[in-house]
Amino acid sequence: MGDSKQLKSVRAIIDTGFTGDLTLPRDVIDQLGFTLRGFQRVILGDGSLQYFEMFVGVVIWDGKMREVEINAAETDSLIGMGLLEDYKLEMEGRSNGEVRITSLPASLSNTV
């Protein structure tokens, strides 16, 4: 949800190599009215360096409104490890395998 106060459901891929919160295509960002905060330097998985526009907006995550950083990228939408902080990620390593994301108890969320 951005300045436009619109809601939009988005399917995204979990990318455990992405340390940010979320990537979305620019047209979705514009549609939702997210606020441009600046540019962010990013090192991609292949080691190349790129700059991405970085926006701030609110998403509904685990039933709660949460402010996140959103990188504009013309690829599949990605959920990064920043959004998964304080959550447990479980997945079945097979085609169409189940993925479960559950919130960690407060006593476990700050341990190493």
Q: What do you see in this structure?
A:
- With 112 residues, this protein is mainly beta.
- Helix content is 10%, strand content 43%.
- The protein is built from 2 helices and 8 strands.
- The chain has helices at 26-32, 106-109; strands at 13-14, 22-24, 35-43, 49-61, 64-72, 78-79, 87-91, 99-103.
- The protein has a 6-stranded mixed sheet. It has a two-stranded antiparallel ribbon with strand order 7-8.
- The longest helix has 7 residues, at 26-32.
- The mean pLDDT is 88.
**Low-confidence parts lasting 5 or more residues at pLDDT below 50?**
none
Spatial order of the strands in the main sheet? 1-6-2-5-4-3
What form results from the Cα inertia axes? globular
In terms of structural class, how would the helical and strand content be classed?
Answer: mainly beta
